[in-house]
C-alpha cells in the first residue's frame, strides 16, 4: 500500500485542516459527562453541517459518498488537532444502512448521522454479556405490533439516546443465536424505563433499560426475523475496528505527554520507567502498522470481519500500558492534569471489557481466524 496521500486526498486533508483551524472550540472539553455530552454533540453537528461526518455513507442518506481513506484522514486530523471526541455510537448507522428498508434508511439515517437523534446499543443483559446468544428479552408478535419484555444493562449513553438498536428473542424454540431479531425501539415508548448506572468517576455513562409490555410497530424490526445475530456481529465488527476511531493520534499524544513528564520530573529517569515508555511506544507502532493493514483491506472493499478482534486487543494493550505508566508517574498529587489522567486510567480498565472482553476476542481469533477447535461446553 502506498502510504502517501494521492493529490485528491492531499487536497481533502488541506481543506479539513483549514476548517479545523477556524472551527475548533476554544473552550476546553468538559471533564464531567453531563457537560461533555452537549459539547461533543454541538461540535459533531457543526462538523456534519460542514460536510465532515458520515464521509463514507451514501449521499442519499446524508453522507458524503467518499471512502475509507477520507474517514481515516478525518480521524487522524481530528486526533492531531486534539479536537473534541466524536459521539461514540456512529457505528450504529452501519446496520441501518445494510439491513434497513428504504423507508427505515430514509427515516432514521439522516438524523442519526447529523446527531439530531441519538442511538444506543441494547445487546447485553444481566445474564448475557460474553454469552450474548443466551439473551432473554422477548419480543412477541401481536397483530401488527411487537410486544417487548426484558432487561438490558450497560447500555452506553442510553440516558442521552432517542432510539435503541435492541436484540430480543423472537423464536424461543430455535437454536439460541438463530432465534434472535433486531428492533428499532424509540426510548420514549410507554413501558421503557432507562435507569442510569453511576461510574466510579461519578459519570452516568451507561444505563439499564427495562422493557415492560413495550409495544412497537411491526415495521420497527430491522432485517428479517432471526437476522439479529448477523446484525449484532456486523455491529461489533465495526465497533472493534481501530481505523475510524482516531485512537492512534490520541495514544501518540498521551505517549508524548508522558515522555515530557519523565523529562521534567527527574534528571536521570528510572530505568524501569524508560523501559515501560519504550514498551508502550513499540506497542503503539504495532497498532499503527496493523491499522494501516486494516485500512488497506477497507480500501480494497472488504468489510470488517472477525479480524477486528486483533484491532481491539492491540488498542486495549496500548491504552493499558500507557495508563499503567501514567499511574506510576503521576504519584505527585499536585501534578497538573493528574485528575484527567486518573479518569483516563479508570476508563482504560474498561477497554478489555466493552465491545466484548479480551478473552472473548482471543477466543474469536483462535476459532475463527486460526481454526483451532472450540472448547467443549
Ligand atoms: C464501558 C462499557 C460500555 C459498554 N457499553 C455497552 C453498550 O452500549 N451496549 C451493550 O449491549 N453492552 C455494553 N457493554 C457491556 C459489554 O459488552 C459486556 O460487559 C461484555 O460483553 C462482557 O460481558 P459481562 O459484563 O456480562 O461479563 P461476563 O460475560 O460475565 O464475563 C466475565 C468474565 O468472564 C470471562 N469469560 C466469559 N466467557 C468466557 C469464555 N467463553 N472464555 C473465556 N473467558 C470468558 C470474560 O472475559 C470476563 O473476564 C459495555 C461495557 C462497558 C464496560
Automatic annotation (TrEMBL):
Family listed: Belongs to the acyl-CoA dehydrogenase family.
Organism: Sinosporangium siamense
Keyword NADP set for record: no
Segments forming domain Acyl-CoA oxidase/dehydrogenase middle: 120-214
Pfam family, one: Acyl-CoA_dh_M
A molecular-function term among this protein's GO annotations: oxidoreductase activity, acting on the CH-CH group of donors
Domain annotation Acyl-CoA dehydrogenase/oxidase C-terminal: ranges: 227-370
Organism ancestry: Bacteria, Bacillati, Actinomycetota, Actinomycetes, Streptosporangiales
Keyword hit for DNA-binding: no
Protein name: Acyl-CoA dehydrogenase
GO CC terms, sorted: plasma membrane
Top-rank taxon, per record: Bacteria
All copies of domain Acyl-CoA dehydrogenase/oxidase N-terminal, residue ranges: 8-114
Keywords: FAD, Flavoprotein, Oxidoreductase
Cofactor(s) in the UniProt record: FAD
Amino acid at each position: 500500500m502506498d502510504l502517501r496521500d494521492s493529490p485528491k486526498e492531499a487536497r481533502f486533508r488541506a481543506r479539513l485542516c483549514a476548517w479545523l483551524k477556524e472551527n475548533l472550540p476554544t473552550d476546553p472539553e468538559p471533564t464531567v459527562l453531563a457537560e461533555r455530552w452537549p459539547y461533543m454533540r454541538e461540535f459533531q453537528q457543526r462538523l456534519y453541517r460542514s460536510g465532515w461526518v458520515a464521509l463514507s455513507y451514501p449521499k442519499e442518506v446524508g453522507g458524503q459518498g467518499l471512502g475509507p481513506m477520507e474517514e481515516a484522514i478525518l480521524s487522524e486530523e481530528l486526533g492531531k488537532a486534539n479536537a473534541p471526541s466524536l459521539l461514540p455510537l456512529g457505528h450504529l448507522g452501519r446496520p441501518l444502512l445494510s439491513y434497513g428498508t428504504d423507508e427505515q434508511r430514509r427515516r432514521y439515517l439522516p438524523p442519526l448521522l447529523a446527531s439530531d437523534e441519538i442511538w444506543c446499543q441494547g445487546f447485553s443483559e444481566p445474564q448475557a454479556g460474553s454469552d450474548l446468544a443466551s439473551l432473554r428479552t422477548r419480543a412477541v408478535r401481536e397483530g401488527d405490533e411487537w410486544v417487548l419484555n426484558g432487561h438490558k444493562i450497560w447500555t452506553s449513553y442510553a440516558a442521552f439516546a432517542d432510539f435503541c438498536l435492541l436484540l430480543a428473542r423472537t423464536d424461543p424454540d430455535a437454536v439460541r443465536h438463530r432465534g434472535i431479531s433486531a428492533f428499532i425501539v424509540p426510548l420514549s415508548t410507554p413501558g421503557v424505563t432507562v435507569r442510569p448506572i453511576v461510574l466510579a468517576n461519578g459519570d452516568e455513562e451507561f444505563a439499564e433499560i427495562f422493557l415492560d409490555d413495550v409495544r412497537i410497530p411491526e415495521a420497527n424490526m430491522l432485517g428479517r426475523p432471526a437476522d439479529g445475530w448477523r446484525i449484532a456481529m456486523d455491529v461489533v465488527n465495526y465497533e472493534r475496528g481501530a481505523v475510524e476511531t482516531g485512537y492512534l493520534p490520541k495514544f501518540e499524544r498521551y505517549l508524548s505527554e508522558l515522555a515530557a513528564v519523565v523529562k521534567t520530573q527527574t534528571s536521570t529517569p528510572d530505568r524501569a520507567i524508560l523501559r515501560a515508555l519504550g514498551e508502550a511506544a513499540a506497542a503503539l507502532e504495532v497498532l499503527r502498522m496493523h491499522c494501516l493493514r486494516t485500512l488497506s483491506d477497507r480500501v480494497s472493499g472488504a468489510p470488517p470481519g472477525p479480524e477486528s478482534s486483533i484491532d481491539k486487543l492491540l488498542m486495549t494493550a496500548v491504552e493499558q500500558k500507557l495508563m499503567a505508566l501514567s499511574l506510576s508517574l503521576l504519584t505527585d498529587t499536585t501534578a497538573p492534569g493528574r485528575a484527567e489522567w486518573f479518569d483516563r486510567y479508570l476508563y482504560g480498565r474498561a477497554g478489555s471489557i466493552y465491545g466484548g472482553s479480551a478473552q472473548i476476542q482471543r477466543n474469536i481469533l483462535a476459532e475463527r481466524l486460526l481454526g483451532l477447535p472450540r472448547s467443549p461446553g
